[in-house]
Amino acid sequence: MASLQKIRNHGALLIAIVGLAMLAFILGDFLNSGSSFFNRSRENVGVIEGQKIHYTEYEAAKEQLTEVYKIETGRSDFDEDTHTQIRNQVWNMMMMDYTLRAQAKAIGMDITADELSELCIGDNVHQIIRSRRAFMDENGQFSRDAVVNLLQAINQEGEDAEQNANLKQAKDYWMYWEKAVRISYMQEKYTALLQHLFKANSLDAEYAFNGRQNGVSAEYVMQPYYAVADSLVKVSDSDIRKLYKQHKQQYKQTPNRAIEYVAFDIKPSEDDFKAAQELLAGLQEEFKTAEDVSLVVNTNSDIMYDGRDYSEETVPAQYKDFAFAKGAKAGDCTEILFENNTYSMARLMQTGYSLPDSVELKAIVEGGEDQELGWFKATDLPKNIAEPAFAGKRGTRFTVAQGMGEQTYEVMEVGKATPKVKLAILAREVTPSSKTYSVIYNQAKQFIVANNSAEALEAAAQEAGLTVVPQYNLTETTDKVGQLKSSRPIVRWAFEAKEGQVSDVFECGQQFIVAALTEVNDGEYRPLDAVRAELTYEATNNAKAEYIKKQLKGVTTLEAAAEALNQKVQNVERVSLSDSRFGNAGMEPAVIGKVLAIGENEVSEPVQGKTGVFMVKRGAANNAAESAFNAESEKAQLASRFSYLPYQALQIVEDKAEVTDNRANFQ
Length: 667
Hints:
46% of the residues lie in helices and 20% in strands. The chain is α+β, with helices and mostly antiparallel strands. Among the domains are: 2-42; 215-249 and 529-621, Chitinase A, domain 3 (Roll), CATH 3.10.50; 256-267 and 432-521, Chitinase A, domain 3; 270-429, no CATH class.
């Protein structure tokens, strides 16, 4: 009872404690839930027209396109630039896909399953599919059967892991091109629809015809801007700001950065050259006398010994005279040679024999037509094909494992036999040692410590004879800085650093890089100071135009204008509405318009043009040679001028799309 009374006495306190505990539990659950939500949002690579692009979708698309590249190029060792190309191609395809989908949905346009099937395997296969080498026959012609065979194969289950991997690669290949066809055809339908909006009617045709036919002659006097000294006019800051405000829409920008950097080349030191030379010297005797020379070479050399046959054309140039010298015999060795930063020596393993330089092969197709493949050198073929091909005679057949099965080949013809040798080459390229790396890295580190601002870095670099390289307009998605290898980390740093800050050391290929952030441009528009030079030029020409107009005040004839400006009266034989150039003066649309707007023999007031100030006098009519008006022909000509507009509209659709690009967070 006493315990119960104590609880009653402290009831209010207990309720408060329990309430706080429950609140903490609820808040904790909410925050954990919110954390999951925010984490999910951070996993989005971007948003295109309301469609969230999850990281897994983006990565899957990259992997798919990588497989396509492997099949199309026959390679798998892609460099940094190719991977960058793949990433950008995937994003651009997503942009086109989702923006077109949004437009198509808005107007009720779609591609049906039947349409897509017709485009892929029907009677009118799309050019994207038709142009793939994977779907061509031995004559280089598109084969619908090859497409059908692929579709049948990718829907089957493989017998083992290797077959399943090959089938997945083939399926990825097909799905990519099927999607490309769908997007391309959607684009074609959309542009065809827009094309109907850009058509000329009869009035347009008549107006264009008359504009071309009806012309006038003209005379003019012109004072170019360059003839007026800059010192004769004044341009105020308010003039420049006024122009900036007028042109501001031209200066829209994506947030960007500008940097400067200096490079410390990672080159081998004298000690590295000495070490490489001593290594070969220490192996020289063993290399000359070893019975199993392949063990010595393949353990120590940059060039593996695989028993290949060298001809005079394929042997490395520095060994040609040695390998094919008169009286050369197996076991002969060169001394240690040095060329292209590489120490090497060679030993003749076999000589005095001949083999053909090339063979002509065909692939045997069971139940089908054999495929002639053409002529090959040994270096053109995989080793498992080259060895039996070059060891055989005309008519010899051999079978090798290939892909998911086996392939039989026949030697159709054998080329002329030429002398060959087998050569073991022990070569070591001189590369920077870990000690050399450390020395150069420390030099770069010390440079940063001594110069921790952009201004100090630039001054110190000039004093040390280092080149300061500027790099402008780096955006968050810029893949690399100029031609620097593996330099994406520099871009990430630039968007995290403060203006004037100096970076840590970046390793970019065979260079250590130290960068300084010189500009941060996060505004919607380029700042006034960034475009001040071009605005000053325009403002100066405007001021010169007013100066020239004052010189012509009260002048009513071309002769008087020529005298006032110390210029000559010039002639233009014919001016019409269809012209884009005004005689020898160049592109002057305002001047052409003024000539056609005034009356015959009337002299205009001064006209400000692109290159100077003009006074013009309209002459007599000077029509083109008469030709019959053909409305349909005129419409066709006008339509051809409009043909680019649908494609420009597509670009505008992409430019105006609501896009959030977060790829920088995943690169």
